[in-house]
Structure formats: structure tokens, C-alpha cells
Amino acid sequence: MRKIFIAGNWKMNKGLQETKEFLATVIPELNKLKLDKVIPLIAPAYPFLEEALKGSFGSCMQVSAQDVSVHSEGAYTGEVSASMLASLGLKYCIVGHSECRQYHNETDSTVNTKILKLLENHITPLVCIGETLQQREENKTKEVVLGQLSGCLQNIKLVSGKELILAYEPVWAIGTGKTATPFQAQEVHNLIRNWLKSNYSEKVAAELSLLYGGSIKPGNMKELLDCEDIDGGLIGGASLKEEDFLEMVKIGKKSKGQEC
Ligand code: PEP
Description:
Helix content is 43%, strand content 15%. With 260 residues, it is an alpha/beta fold. The chain has one domain (4-254): Alpha-Beta Barrel (TIM Barrel). An eight-stranded parallel beta barrel has the order 1-2-3-4-5-6-7-8, surrounded by six helices. α10 (218-225) packs parallel to α11 (242-254). It starts with a strand and ends in a 6-residue tail after the last helix.
């Protein structure tokens, strides 16, 4: 069975004190749950990664960065390299988020370079793809998603599906309160899974965790996780509240026939 990620993208929210408080509340509760297939994960802003790693040490909580530089080192003011993230002991990093694509003009080719840098540094990339509302309305979802997949994953060799995570995040569902229906999400997830089969292997397709993202909250998590090809969520707003985060982890633990 694939790993189910309950991944919180904190974006530019929560400072040092709030990060500490979140972990002080959530970690003891996570420690009471026997999580086998479910991986809780948070992605705080760069300055608080070390604190998050410290606060989660010895628990099942994983920590991710929200982005990484395409460069390895040098005169790139404000940027953070993959080797710097690795030196903290970080194991995950989000790339290709629609906000980075929109505000930093990130392209599939940029995302591709970031993935390569992360893999070279033994960090698992969590790669985001997804269509805009206009693209969906023009019936271009399939074309856009498959185009992003081939652009982002060009020349990326995967032997196992555990080396990378994909998140399908329809841009129109991010931060809007408008979630894709389970049918809409599953349809795209299935398309991605089949693309992985054709372009990598049955093994990679079977192992790779495919997350959905876009206005997930405790109230709609179960119906999304009930879909065959949805292996967790990348969650913005609802991941900021300790009780909601824990509730979504518990829903993950009961999903896919793990527990009644
Ligand atoms: C996200 O930031 O990736 C996201 C899905 O945000 P939200 O859950 O707030 O829509």
C-alpha cells in the first residue's frame, strides 16, 4: 500500500512561537496514534525549519521546505539551495506550487531543475501540478496536466515511486473554498497514474503517492481519500489549525481500509 501524506503547506504563516505552539500541541497527540501508512508533514517557512525539525524529532511528523533554489551556491541573494536544506536534515521539499508559478514566473523547466537538485541531495520533491479555471473550462485539463508532468519530469530517472511525490492541485481550488469533486479529482489522478505507468513503470506508478490539494478540510477529506488514486492531501489553510490537522491525520489513518 502507498504512503498517505497529510501534508500541511503553511505558506507565509506562523512565526517561531506559533510553530513551537503547534508542535507542542500536535506531537503528543500524534504519538498516541499508531500511524503506519500515514505520514503527517508540515512545511513551515525557511527560518523555522530547524525549529520544526527539532520539535518533531523522534515523532512521525515530517518537515518539508516550501521551495528551493535552482542554483547550487553563489551570488543569489535570498535563495536557499538544496544542499543547505539537506544540511539541516530535511527530507522533503515542495516545488512547482501554483503560487510560485504565478508570483515567481516558475516554469516546468525551472521545476525540473529544482527536482534534479533535490534528488541529488537526497530530498524527496513534492511536485505540484494543476490547471487553471480557464484551462478547465476550455477542456484543456488533460493536456495541461500531462504537459506539466512531462516538462517537470523530463530526464528524471525514477527506479522507485518512493523517490518523489506528486500533488494534483487545480489552481481554481487553492485557497478558494472550492474543492474539486471526488470524481473530478480521481479522474485526473487516474490519468496521472496511467501516465506514470507508460512513462516509468508499473512499479513506480503503484508506489508513488499522489496527493490532491485545493481547499481540503476535515469535512471533505474522507470522500477524497475514498478515491482509489488519491493518497493524501496537500493542505493550506486547514493545516494551520492544530485540531483540524490532527483530525485530517485521523481520517487518513482510517482510510483505504486500514481501520474501521
Ligand atoms: C495549497 O496551498 O497547496 C493549498 C491547497 O491551499 P488550500 O488548502 O488553502 O486551498
